[in-house]
Amino acid sequence: MDHDHDHGMGSGSGGEHDGHGSCPMNMAFHTGYQECILWKGWMTTTVTEFVFSALALFVAAFIYEALKFTREFFLRRAVRNEAERVALELQSKTAGPSTNTAATTACHGSSNLAPIREKTYAQRIFSTPHLIQTFFNLIQIIMSYLIMLIFMTYNYWLCLAVILGLGVGYFFFGWIKQDVYESECCH
């Protein structure tokens, strides 16, 4: 089989542009500053453009890490608020007029307490905390795919910008994570 055909990358090293607005794709790790990043409108042709693009990608990766931990913060707060609501409801039911509930429970096998009010499925889905989580999750998914596509440019410098942004972001926000068994698989 002959694998010496061009794949539309021109005669250069794969990082050069042919001046027609195309985005060549080099499928091997490479260096260079002439790069098409994500779409045709984001082409770097000078070192300055490339450096600012790498800095922007660093910041985007940092923000991605911040977003992950912001979602975790909101989730923990929503769970804590729900637990407080249930505790207050339980406390208000047990603080009512008492006729020795321990003796009643022991004799009759059940308590006279009303069951704790559960939220319906619709109430849970359309609750403000869930809508906020859904919005942040959507943004996080979009950012994760864009970061993956940026890494797939296979440009060492862009890959390094992404890795450093994620690492520095985790350094600043990773201490928030309290449970070592929580998985970050694919996020």
From TrEMBL:
Keyword annotations of the record = Copper, Copper transport, Ion transport, Membrane, Transmembrane, Transmembrane helix, Transport
Keyword check for Transmembrane, yes or no: yes
In the bilayer, the protein is annotated as:
Multi-pass membrane protein
The keyword RNA-binding appears for this protein? no
Compartment(s): Membrane
Matching Pfam families: Ctr
Q: Where are the transmembrane segments?
A: 50-67, 131-148, 154-173
Q: Which InterPro entries match?
A: Cop_transporter
The UniProt entry's sequence similarity note says: Belongs to the copper transporter (Ctr) (TC 1.A.56) family. SLC31A subfamily.
This chain belongs to the protein called: Copper transport protein
Q: Corresponding gene?
A: LOC101899839
